[in-house]
Amino acid sequence: MAVIALRKYGTWMLGILASLFMCMAVAAASEPLPSWNDGATKQAIIDFVVRVTKDGSADFVPEAQRVAAFDNDGTLWAEQPMYVQALFVADRVKTLASQHPEWTSKEPFASLLKGDATGVAASGESGIAELMAITHAGMSTDEFAVIVSDWIATARHPKTGRLYTEMIYQPMIELLAYLRENGFKTFIVSGGGIEFMRPWAERVYGIPPEQVIGSTGGLKFEMRDGTPIIMKTPDLVLNDDKDGKPVGIQRHIGRRPTAAFGNSDGDLQMLEWTCSPPGARLCLLVHHTDAEREWAYDRTSRVGRLDKALDEATAKGWTIVDMKQDWKTVFPKEDAR
Question: In whole angstroms, what is the distance from residue 233 CA to residue 129 CA?
Fold first, then answer.
């Protein structure tokens, strides 16, 4: 009898343990934001989402109004040592240089071909505009999308050797997914070019082209050999940076976001506009504090300067991500993408 009882007890214990492990596995699988360390920052995000999505909550936001706006450079992917689109421009000029021998003595092309960033900067806005016109205009939107897609598929970061599309922040990818799971529509609102980001944003971030907002050049309808096309022109229609970001949001979305995410002074006006109305709002800044796993920079950085926005975020109680403290990991594992 004792043996039978022991066997029954053992079977019962196995069942209990199996159930326990299953519950633990389900809990682990459903844990929001797994690449974020537990703490005030992660909890602030979760608390906000619960408040605006829970039926009966005083802060409930209907699903149609749940809009989340994300900067790209330095917020969703790395921006050091130089903005990715600037590196695209440099590579594009080098590719076209054989067709333009005059560039070896003409600025800003000569400085760019020599790798002289100071010389390029000395050309001023007119020089930068000329570089953008050569590399971004005079072709159809479809042709430009192919050029960008081909480049982004092979271009690698000069320090890590990884594809630029692998230099994305795993915690932010999880945040995008978490918000979408809770009825948010996620938008990119970037100073980068809208036509530069659209060809790859859906594959990398799950954000479709119609939800990408960026600096916008001119477009013109034409017929080419009986086929309608949209041509890119060199004029600038919208500089989607700083005070241009709220304008871009209003122009493209027509609804103020309930959550906004950035990392630099270029995002300040977007966050101010998002968090100024009453009610539950989430404004978040990614502070680059991890020199070992990424880069540490803020107030004096030439790229992604975070100065005034950091002060305002502190004064207004916005959420500030300390990358070194708040993120378990920075980039996806190389074999995961």
Answer: 12
